[in-house]
Design brief:
globular, alpha/beta, 7 strands, 20% strand
Length: 204
C-alpha cells in the first residue's frame, strides 16, 4: 500500500476519508438492524447530494464533500455479505492509497443500547463478524469505528435473528435521529478529529 497523507485518527486530517457502512446486500436486508451502517451512509450522501455508483472494488461508492471546503469523503457500501466485508474494504484502501488512519467503519453494535452511538479507534472486533473480517483483511484494527447501538434482544431471542430483523415500530420513530446523530459523528471525526467527536457525542 502506498503511504500517503499520514494523519492521526484522533486529530483532524486534510486528506480524504474512506467511510464504510457495513451491512448485507439486497433490498431484503436494507431495513434490518445489521444494515444501520449503510443507512448512515445514505444520510451522508443525501446531505452532500452525492450519488452511489458501482465501483471496481466490489462496492458502491459516492465521493465528494458535504459542504464547500469540508473534508473529502469516499462513502462505500461493500457488495458482499457482512461476514466478508474485508475484501472490498482492503481493495478500496489500495485503490485510494489510504492509510488505516483514514478509515471510518460505521456498524451496528449489540452491546450498546438503541438510540446511542459510541466512537473509538483501535481495539478488537467485539464479536462483530463484519469488523472481524475488516481487521483480518487490512491487517490491523487501528481504524475509527462509529458504533451504532441496536441493543440486545429481549428474553431468549438470538442475537443473529435480532440483527437480521427490521427495527421495531417504536424504534423506527427514533431511528432517523439515531442515523442523523451517527452521520453527524462521521462529519465531526473527518473535520475535527476523533477526540472532538467523542467529547461531543459521549457526553450525551
Amino acid at each position: 500500500m502506498e503511504p500517503t497523507r499520514q494523519a492521526s485518527s484522533t486529530g483532524p486530517s486534510d486528506g480524504p476519508w474512506l467511510v464504510v457502512g457495513l451491512g448485507n446486500p439486497g433490498p431484503g436486508y436494507a431495513s434490518t438492524r445489521h444494515n444501520v451502517g449503510q443507512m448512515v451512509l445514505d444520510e451522508l450522501a443525501s446531505r452532500g447530494g452525492l450519488t452511489f455508483k458501482s465501483h471496481k472494488t466490489n462496492a458502491t461508492v459516492a465521493e465528494g464533500r458535504l459542504a464547500p471546503g469540508g473534508p473529502r469523503l469516499v462513502l462505500a457500501k461493500p457488495n458482499t455479505f457482512m461476514n466478508v466485508s474485508g475484501g472490498p474494504v482492503s481493495q478500496l484502501m489500495r485503490f485510494y492509497s489510504l492509510d488505516p488512519s483514514h478509515l471510518i467503519v460505521v456498524h451496528d453494535e449489540l452491546d450498546i443500547p438503541f438510540d446511542t452511538i459510541r466512537l473509538k479507534s483501535g481495539g478488537g472486533h467485539g464479536g462483530h463478524n463484519g469488523v472481524r473480517d475488516v481487521i483480518a483483511a487490512i491487517g490491523t484494527g487501528d481504524f475509527t469505528r462509529v458504533r451504532v447501538g441496536v441493543g440486545r434482544p429481549p428474553g431468549t431471542s438470538g442475537a443473529a435473528d435480532h440483527v437480521l430483523k427490521a427495527f421495531s415500530a417504536a424504534e423506527r420513530k427514533n431511528l432517523p435521529i439515531l442515523v442523523s446523530d451517527a452521520a453527524d459523528a462521521v462529519e465531526e471525526i473527518a473535520a475535527g478529529g476523533l477526540t472532538s467527536a467523542q467529547n461531543r457525542f459521549h457526553a450525551r
